[in-house]
Design brief:
The chain is an alpha+beta fold and about 400 residues long. It folds into 2 domains: about 90 residues, Immunoglobulins (Immunoglobulin-like, Sandwich); about 240 residues, Immunoglobulin-like (Sandwich), CATH 2.60.40. The strands form 3 sheets. Strands 10, 11, 12, 13, 14, 15, 16, 17, 18, 19, 20 and 21 form a 12-stranded mixed beta sheet that branches. β7 and β8 form a beta hairpin. The longest helix has about 35 residues. It starts with a helix and ends with a helix. The N terminus is likely disordered.
């Protein structure tokens, strides 16, 4: 009996310990059940924030720079804009550009580049935004302020008496051409007869007596056009019974010419297209035997010399064309004379109106032409119905008249 009693006493002695273990186990289980139903920061003593945190999406305007002043000379010039946002690019978010709080461009994918055309002079504030597909604004860039100043001066014209102005109007009223192709609309380029032919030496100075045309507009790859400092020019011409003469002063920020012969128009160059029977070809878009395309290269001012090449119709250098050029700090001057006998069966006459467009080709060290600006607003190198017009007019010896006028003034 003593042995059995000792057995029960041993179990009773251990019971408090067993009970304690059971209590601790239930306590742990209850704690985890309660914890899982409360906020994680309940036990840390912190307050749960209910306001959503703003996403940090960086967006920057890399072009234009702040306080930049743009001096424009024609209504086609643009301000190059470029936006950078790595987060927007990676996550496929929208990027928009605002000018004076008005949205001018929305991008759904990179690159975020845009050539913006301001309508008038003034100060403009530019910002960029990143937003999601619900148009919630996620981030906004720094503000960039620019100034645009237009100098829309008319093309310089020599002083011609009223009799010549009336003669011009009479010629135009009796002529057939494509006024919608000219710049400005309805006004062709006038080429005055010269009684003393210019010296072909690449010098613009002796052309002061003749009309100047500078309203070139982007025509081919015009999406690459930014400002006149990239590519633009001033053109003057005259004629006599033997030759057509012209000079072009070209503004080109990056000069590049590595080609010759039938490839010269792959580099910086000038192309002139003539239609010597304009009235008969008015509805014809393709080249025929009275159309002529002549390409001119200024050379590279070292190993490549100035030259001309007739791409149509002969695919060969034109006969006895004289070409000279001069390198300028921001471009070049190209001057040339073209004997009329290169144009089959054509005789220059006072009052003649022919199809005509001069174009300036710009490459900027690329393998192909980057941009073409032309004297016809719709020019297409493969479509002669896009040509403007050139009027040959005899206004008397305007060179001598101007010299006499200067002597009288002195």
């Amino acid at each position: 009996m003593k042995k059995e009693n000792r057995k029960y006493l041993n179990i009773l002695d251990r019971f408090p310990y067993i009970l304690l273990i059971v209590i601790i186990g239930f306590t742990v289980i209850f704690f985890y059940i309660v914890k899982n139903n409360l906020p994680l920061n309940f036990f840390s003593g912190t307050v749960n924030e209910t306001v959503d945190e703003e996403s940090n999406y960086s967006v920057f305007i890399t072009s234009p720079v702040n306080n930049k002043v743009y001096n424009f000379i024609n209504s086609k010039e643009t301000v190059p804009m470029e936006i950078k946002s790595k987060q927007a690019e990676n996550e496929g978010l929208k990027v928009s550009i605002l000018v004076n709080d008005g949205e001018v461009k929305i991008f759904n994918s990179p690159p975020y580049k845009y050539n913006w055309n301001p309508l008038e002079s003034g100060e403009y504030d530019i910002i960029a935004r990143v937003s999601d597909d619900q148009d919630n604004i996620l981030s906004e860039s720094n503000k960039v302020t620019i100034v645009v100043e237009y100098d829309m001066t008319e093309s310089e014209t020599s002083i011609i008496n009223m009799d010549i102005e009336e003669k011009k109007e009479k010629i135009l009223s009796e002529s057939t051409y494509r006024p919608q192709n000219t710049i400005p609309a309805g006004v062709p380029i006038f080429s005055y007869k010269c009684y003393t032919p210019p010296v072909i030496d690449g010098n613009f100075a002796e052309w002061d007596n003749f009309d100047k045309f500078s309203s070139f507009e982007p025509t081919i790859k015009k999406e690459n056009y930014t400002t006149h400092t990239d590519i633009s020019g001033t053109f003057s011409s005259c004629w006599d019974d033997q030759n057509f003469y012209f000079v072009a002063q070209v503004v080109d920020d990056v000069f590049s010419q590595m080609y010759t012969g039938n490839e010269l128009n792959k580099g910086d160059s000038i192309t002139i297209v003539f239609d010597t029977e304009l009235e008969q070809d008015l509805q014809i878009p393709f080249y025929n035997s009275d159309d002529y395309q002549i390409d001119f290269s200024p050379g590279n001012f070292s190993s490549i010399f100035p030259e001309a090449y007739m791409s149509w119709p002969s695919d060969a250098p034109p006969r006895e064309v004289d070409v000279a050029s001069t390198k300028l700090a921001n471009g070049y001057v190209l001057e040339a004379s073209i004997p009329w006998y290169n144009f089959t069966d054509y005789e220059p006459l006072d009052g003649s109106v022919i199809g005509f467009t001069i174009s300036i080709l710009d490459t900027d060290n690329l393998e192909t032409t980057e941009l073409v600006v032309s004297s016809s607003s719709v020019f297409d190198i493969n479509n002669v119905s896009t040509l403007g017009a050139l009027v040959l007019i005899d206004a008397g010896d305007i060179q001598q008249e101007k010299e006499n006028g200067q002597e009288d003034a002195d």
